[in-house]
């Protein structure tokens, strides 16, 4: 899918804009060569491609502020970008917009063990935060599968999750403060190194805002002590119903494992063929359950969960006996996406969340859809919090398969909403789910979200075309919703 | 302190407004008798008193919507109120405003064990949520000291904390969804029963917004399974430095207790005299540390923390051996505020947060201030997350003592900010700390917060005079901050 063609007059201004940007960001920091711009055309989603008009790679906050103020004044749209791994097209460039890459913001600025806080630039990768504090026995908890590549700035923009978010929360639960730049160039500091600093929770608001409210230039994250012990269980089931029942039993017993992941037969087979993790090949569903904490607690929970698994009908169970084995158990899960990529020319990764107890019905209905669309689906998901990642397998070279895969994906997401779940888990709305927002939110709700957008970027120049199916002009928003309110409850007396 | 006198013309409209309100809320739901209005004059803070112009007690969402739409159209200010226990004057009425009491919204609407969610009306008390699910072995984690009286709606408005927030998070970490009404009467649904539903995190934004953005009419909270075991430790220290050091050692060892509270000599003596909790009377500082989880883990941590306490110089240590003993250990802490009330005619409860490792220096400087102001101070605090509650003891009948207590309090809060902490912990900004917001936020930051306020309540009619030292007209906010941005980074090239 290509974004709309540039507006009239934009290309004429391009040369002058490049010169003005070069006066702010010297050297190689402004890219206008069409071949070089292709490097930015994709946002981790092969189906969406669009090179930007110009790419700018600033290295200081002052440069970010000046670039945004310039674009604001000149009416130029801006798309911020971290590592481009969102999978929903959140950082997809615009043909008539500037792409603002934060890749040069890659320094760890301060490690404050006293406050359990690390201050980093937004282009630092997720894994590098843990890397910076690991020697002292600390780590940063949210761990998206893409953690080698994805950046903290992008994690904040998408409110990223990961295997360990079941116990330790999403990005929003692990961020303490931000520095950000508004579209007009204003630099703001939000939050700090503590809980609730008073005033509105703008840090929370920014987290998951998908680059529509401001450009993040600094992030203060919370770090945790490495637990004394970590063990993983590998549990095989004859069908996904009994695996789902097992998840319900564990949570029902009041146990919150550090992670609880589920893979179906396709995903198990693909992962095992790829990395030889030691997965059982004769089961329909596999749970990988991690426990962490004091050794005495972990060993106790391994036994207790083992009993619950057997009650739920598990046909195989192994507990890691050392760190190497634990890492091997996880290697298959972490490699599941590329592993599926080896058994199919293309795949489309979905992201939705359902109530945990709806897992069996959703899996059954997805299997029926798979038959109807004539496309295989491999399932890998964060079972503990009901976050599904169905991978729809297709071949883009077969006419019509891409379109069928997209239809299949949209039907899965609508099913998530239908059973009481939500459209996203951790990949954001971006371009991909923009047109499905109406399934989830009323027009009244969407208008209030846009009114918040107007409080940050009233002209709608920052990352337009993402998240909202229709972006209203800010001036239009007032009357629409007053009328709605009065329509719903018309019996307001006059005096 | 009284709020400003009514504006010209307001009183003339009062009679007509009462009639119009009675057309919406029938029976006893509209109160205009001056004697009856006195019941609403205080907001848990004896120093601030102001009866409202009119009080309205609606019982349906339609009534709330119609009351707000009416006030919006007629330009009447509205102050929402839960149980009035904020301690910062957040729900202090206005002489020319309508007080909107949510006390009749006191029903538990739905208990959804499958999704670990409970839907309640905002006037349900904090403790009643746990009460509704306790028989099935569940509870609601945030537990403010006022939990018998304070309501969930107020907890959301203030982002309330409590003893167990060290491990289980503040209110913001335990709320899944909201229904709210905007000042113009529009009804919105935010969030649901799951993590991150896509779009902006307006649930997070509402949490802690102190009644300035909308009126909460329904709250969906997350509930947790009761842990298998809970034990409390009572640890005495010869001085507050060693108690502070002990807190640092425990957190440093990677242990997050369910709660970790500290009391100083004044507070210990007062609490023991009041409820006979079994506290040691020969120590300068007392830590109450709670552990919860599987029995095997709790017993292990009791031993481990015992060893850390001895290393830090503890002179006494007792671990609860049964539930009755655990409750007795907590009874003193929970009664600490009223207990201090018995040893002083009046006291002023402060709320600020500091980095944990600054505890010794802050306590030393508070002791010096206490001498300088000639007022005693008793300290009770959530030591685990650095949230202080100094209680300044004074006698309002002694001329000048109230003013000295307020000055002393403001100096303590500025000290919190000076050492890298924040103005509030869990009581909100309200009226009390409004004029100190400038110590914490720049004008740029405050303007952005107000721009968010404008996205919800552009005329500023909802709870004015709280949180912000100056409330700008929304139309004024645009230019101010653009100029600021350009002033800070003036080198934006033109083309």
UniProtKB/TrEMBL annotation, chains A, B:
Keyword Chaperone among UniProt keywords: no
GO MF annotation terms: FAD binding; oxidoreductase activity
Location of the FAD-binding PCMH-type domain: 48-226
One Pfam family recorded for the sequence: FAD_binding_4
Keywords from the named record: FAD, Flavoprotein, Oxidoreductase
Enzyme Commission code(s) on record: 1.-.-.-
SUPFAM superfamilies assigned to the protein according to its UniProt record, in alphabetical order: FAD-binding/transporter-associated domain-like (SSF56176), FAD-linked oxidases, C-terminal domain (SSF55103)
PROSITE patterns: FAD_PCMH
Superkingdom classification of source: Bacteria
Cofactor(s) annotated in UniProt: FAD
Record flagged with keyword Flavoprotein: yes
UniProt-recorded name of the protein: Putative FAD-linked oxidoreductase
């Amino acid at each position: 899918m290509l974004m709309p063609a540039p507006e009239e007059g934009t290309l004429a201004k391009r040369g002058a804009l490049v010169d003005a940007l070069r006066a702010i960001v010297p050297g190689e920091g402004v890219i206008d060569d069409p071949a070089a711009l292709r490097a930015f055309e994709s946002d981790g989603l092969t189906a969406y491609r669009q090179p930007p008009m110009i790419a700018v790679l600033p290295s200081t906050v002052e440069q970010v502020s000046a670039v945004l103020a310039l674009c604001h004044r000149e009416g130029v749209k801006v798309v911020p970008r971290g590592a481009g791994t969102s999978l929903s097209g959140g950082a997809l460039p615009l043909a008539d917009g500037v792409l603002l890459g934060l890749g040069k913001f890659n320094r760890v600025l301060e490690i404050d063990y006293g406050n359990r806080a690390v201050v980093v630039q937004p282009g630092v990768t997720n894994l590098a935060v843990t890397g910076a504090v690991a020697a002292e026995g600390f780590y940063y908890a949210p761990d998206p599968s893409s953690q080698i590549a994805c950046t903290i700035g992008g994690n904040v923009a998408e409110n990223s999750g990961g295997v360990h978010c079941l116990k330790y929360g999403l990005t929003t639960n692990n961020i303490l403060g931000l520095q950000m730049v508004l579209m007009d160039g204003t630099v703001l500091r939000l939050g700090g190194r503590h809980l609730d600093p008073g005033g509105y929770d703008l840090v929370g608001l920014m987290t998951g805002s998908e680059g529509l409210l401001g450009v993040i230039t600094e992030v203060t994250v919370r770090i945790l002590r490495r637990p004394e012990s970590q063990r993983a269980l590998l549990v095989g089931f004859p069908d996904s119903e009994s695996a789902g029942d097992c998840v319900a039993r564990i949570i029902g017993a009041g146990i919150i494992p550090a992670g609880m992941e589920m893979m179906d037969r396709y995903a198990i087979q693909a992962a095992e063929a790829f990395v030889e993790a030691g997965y059982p090949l004769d089961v329909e569903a596999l749970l990988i359950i991690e426990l962490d904490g004091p050794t005495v607690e972990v060993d106790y929970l391994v036994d207790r969960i083992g009993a619950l698994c057997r009650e739920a009908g598990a046909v195989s169970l192994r507990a890691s006996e050392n760190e190497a084995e634990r890492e091997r158990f996880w290697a298959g899960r972490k490699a599941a996406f590329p592993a599926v990529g080896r058994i199919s020319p293309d795949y489309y990764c979905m992201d939705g969340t359902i109530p945990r107890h709806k897992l069996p019905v959703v899996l059954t209905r997805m299997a029926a859809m798979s038959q109807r669309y004539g496309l295989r689906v491999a399932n890998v998901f964060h079972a503990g919090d009901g976050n599904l990642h169905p991978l729809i397998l297709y071949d883009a070279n077969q006419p019509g398969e891409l379109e069928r895969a997209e239809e299949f994906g949209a039907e899965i997401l609508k099913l998530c909403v239908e059973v009481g779940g939500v459209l996203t888990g951790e990949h954001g709305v971006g371009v991909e789910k923009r047109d499905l927002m109406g399934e989830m939110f009323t027009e009244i709700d969407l208008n209030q979200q846009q009114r918040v957008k107007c409080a940050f970027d009233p002209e709608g120049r920052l990352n337009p075309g993402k998240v909202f199916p229709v972006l209203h002009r800010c001036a239009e928003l007032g009357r629409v919703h007053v009328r709605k309110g009065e329509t719903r409850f018309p019996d307001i007396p006059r005096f």
